[in-house]
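Field log, afternoon session.

UNIT: design team B
ACTIVITY: writing a sequence onto a fixed backbone
BACKBONE:
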């Protein structure tokens, strides 16, 4: 009798343990979902530079309606795979004082985080934000196109 009872329990434990993602690693489903949205892997973290997806006007941190919807859709799809935490890093072009740009970039990151939390149906406290100002440009600030690309938010997802 004992042998019959322990076999189903052992089988159930094996099945359930196979469903868990090992600590510090992403599941294949999570990696596939991140790749689908354009995330790239770098030193164990996955990041998406949203400059080509979400552009902010000069001196503006408000998300356009279509950008907000896109963020919410992406967040919902990633949350469905168990990705419940992220870091949003806001950036600006090189116009303006450093303190102003850092505050503006933080507001941008906060806007993306708010939309992300709403779309993923997760607590806003699962998301952290940083305002990096003009410190890390991805394009030349000498052209209007380059400055537009630098007005962005990067989403970073670290291993669980």
């Amino acid at each position: 009798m004992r042998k019959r009872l322990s076999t189903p329990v052992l089988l159930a434990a094996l099945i359930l343990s196979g469903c868990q993602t090992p600590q510090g690693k992403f599941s294949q489903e999570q990696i596939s979902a991140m790749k689908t949205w354009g995330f790239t892997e770098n030193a164990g973290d996955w990041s998406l530079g949203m400059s080509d997806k979400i552009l902010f006007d000069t001196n503006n941190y408000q998300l356009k309606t279509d950008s907000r919807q896109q963020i919410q859709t992406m967040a919902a799809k990633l949350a469905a795979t168990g990705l419940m935490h992220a870091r949003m890093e806001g950036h600006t072009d090189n116009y303006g004082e450093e303190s102003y740009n850092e505050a503006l970039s933080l507001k941008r990151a906060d806007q993306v985080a708010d939309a992300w939390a709403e779309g993923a149906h997760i607590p806003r406290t699962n998301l952290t934000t940083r305002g990096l100002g003009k410190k890390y440009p991805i394009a030349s600030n000498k052209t209007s196109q380059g400055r537009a690309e630098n007005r962005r938010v990067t989403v970073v997802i670290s291993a669980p």
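LOG NOTE: The two ends are 40 Å apart (CA to CA).
NEXT ACTIVITY: expression trials, pending approval
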